[in-house]
Structures are given as structure tokens and as C-alpha cells.
């Protein structure tokens, strides 16, 4: 269908936003809009300029017969800091306090707009890590994992404590809970993760890191590698964590159950190598 430039720009922008990290041949747009490749290239240049000026992302171009254009979502430094600071303030509400120093976070995890924004932050942080799949533990980590995966355009693998017959054959391992020092079992369906994948592990909360350590070991059972670890909130713990290389958005630094006070601060995202890595 023949479009005027204004129509092409709107439709192409919508397509890019819906297909991040997906290489699109110029011939696809040229045939779709019945326009010359030179005109399509000019359109892409306009979209790229606007995306970068508004910190929406960037469009990368690959030359050659197998080349094309790819939209890479990114985040703005100032907006990210404001979003994380707002989340810290929200998490400091004393009504969130649960026994054992945990925080009630289901309202945060269940907020679609917020969780999509946080997922975009993680996706931007790991955009150069060549992620093939996102892995998380059922159940509270699932919304964040899907948000991250949607911005990276990769599938999600969900690890469970119990075996579901509808998932077919599984791979199971035993791991030691970091905080409770208790041996537990986690499982992943064989069909859920392709061998030799580059896996990004996402979790909503990390105390000592036993669950994440278990998922890292499970990744190796699929002859795959860990591309990185992202945590929404980490807790300050007296014992040494079982995971050393990870990215956290927030840190639960102090909990006083008697006084019912909570202190939450920025996580290590703002200090580490993944912070707005180019």
C-alpha cells in the first residue's frame, strides 16, 4: 500500500517499538510501502534522530545483503534516577513491613506501567550482552522478567519448585537456600530453554542469593551461560552473598521491626559497569 511520508513515519515507528532487537531488512519497508529504499533510509534517519533526542532508543544499521535496521531501547539517565528514587520512597512505607524483614511488593510488581519502565532499565543495561533468554523463579519474579524480555525481544524461562506434568520432562537440581541454609529443589522444563543459550536471570528480591545461585547452576545444566543477573531489590545481609556479579535497582539497607522504619536506597546499578553502558 502506498503511503505518504507522514503515514510511513507513524507506521514504521509503531513497528520499531513493537519489535525491539529485531533486524528488519530495508526491503521489508520498501515493499510494504511501495517506496524506494532511498526514501525508506531517509525516513529511518528521521525516526533515529527523534528516538535519540527523546532518549527512546537508537536505530542501528547493518550493511550488506543480510543487513537491515534494528531498534534498541535505551533509558535516559535522569529519568532512570528519578524513577528509582520514586520507587525507593514508595518502598519505605512502613505498612509494607512483613515478619522477617521482608517487604510487601505485590502492588509494585502488579503495576503494569511501573514494571514496564523497570524492565526497560534492565533491558537497556544488558542490551550489549547478547541475551537469548530471560530466566526467573516463579512466581513474583514473572511480571518483571516478562517486562525485561519484551524489551529484549527474547523468551522467558520460568523455574519452579514443583513439577508440572503439562511441562513434560524436566531438569531438576538441589540448591541451598542462602538465608535459611535449607536444601531445596528447583526445576525447569527441558523445552523451556535451548542449549547453549545466553541467559539473563531476573529476580524480584535477593537476600543471600541462594535462589539466584541455584538458577545459575541450573543454566549450566543446559550447557548455557549466564549473561547477567538483575535484581529489583537486594537486602543488606550480614553474611556474604552467594552471588557477586549482579545489578540491583534498589537496596533494602535498614529495617527496624520494632520502630517500624524502613530505609531503601539506590542499588548498585548506579555504580557498576552496566550503568548506561554504551
Pick out the low-confidence regions.
none
- Percentage of residues in helical conformation: 25-40%
Strand order of the largest sheet: 6-5-9-10-11-12
Which CATH architecture of the largest domain is right? Answer: 3-Layer(aba) Sandwich
Strand content: 25-35%
Description:
With 278 residues, the chain is α/β, with parallel strands linked by helices. The protein folds into two domains: 5-73, Arc Repressor Mutant, subunit A (Orthogonal Bundle); 77-270, Rossmann fold, CATH 3.40.50. It contains eight helices and twelve strands. It has helices at residues 5-18, 26-33, 37-53, 77-91, 106-109, 112-125, 142-152, 210-221; strands at residues 57-62, 68-73, 97-98, 102-103, 133-137, 156-159, 170-176, 183-189, 198-206, 225-235, 247-256, 261-266. The protein has a six-stranded mixed sheet, with helices on both faces. Strands 1-2 form a two-stranded antiparallel sheet. The protein has a two-stranded antiparallel ribbon with strand order 3-4. The chain is globular and about 65 Å long. The two termini are 38 Å apart. The mean pLDDT is 92.
Amino acid at each position: 500500500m502506498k503511503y505518504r511520508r507522514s503515514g510511513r513515519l507513524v507506521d514504521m515507528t509503531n513497528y520499531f517499538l513493537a519489535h525491539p532487537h529485531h533486524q528488519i531488512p530495508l526491503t521489508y519497508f520498501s515493499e510494504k510501502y511501495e517506496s524506494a529504499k532511498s526514501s525508506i533510509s531517509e525516513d529511518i534517519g528521521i525516526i533515529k534522530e527523534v528516538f535519540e533526542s527523546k532518549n527512546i532508543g537508537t536505530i542501528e544499521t547493518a550493511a550488506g545483503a543480510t543487513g537491515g535496521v534494528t531498534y534498541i531501547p535505551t533509558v535516559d539517565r535522569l529519568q532512570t534516577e528519578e524513577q528509582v528514587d520514586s520507587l525507593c520512597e514508595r518502598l519505605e512505607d512502613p505498612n509494607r513491613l512483613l515478619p522477617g524483614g521482608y517487604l510487601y511488593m505485590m502492588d509494585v510488581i502488579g503495576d503494569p506501567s511501573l514494571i514496564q519502565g523497570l524492565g526497560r532499565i534492565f533491558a537497556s543495561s544488558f542490551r550489549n550482552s547478547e541475551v537469548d533468554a530471560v530466566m526467573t523463579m516463579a512466581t513474583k519474579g514473572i511480571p518483571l522478567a516478562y517486562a525485561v524480555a519484551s524489551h529484549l525481544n527474547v523468551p522467558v524461562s520460568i523455574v519452579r519448585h514443583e513439577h508440572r506434568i503439562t511441562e513434560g520432562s524436566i531438569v531438576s537440581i538441589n540448591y541451598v537456600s542462602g538465608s535459611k541454609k535449607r536444601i531445596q529443589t528447583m526445576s525447569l522444563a527441558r523445552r523451556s530453554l535451548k542449549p547453549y543459550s545466553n541467559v539473563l536471570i531476573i529476580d524480584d528480591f535477593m537476600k543471600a542469593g541462594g535462589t539466584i545461585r541455584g538458577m545459575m547452576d541450573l543454566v549450566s545444566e543446559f550447557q548455557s551461560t549466564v549473561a547477567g543477573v538483575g535484581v529489583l531489590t537486594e537486602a543488606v545481609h550480614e553474611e556474604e552473598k552467594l552471588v557477586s556479579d549482579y545489578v540491583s535497582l534498589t537496596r533494602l539497607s535498614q529495617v527496624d521491626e520494632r520502630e517500624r522504619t524502613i530505609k531503601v536506597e539506590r542499588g548498585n546499578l548506579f555504580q557498576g559497569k552496566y550503568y548506561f553502558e554504551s
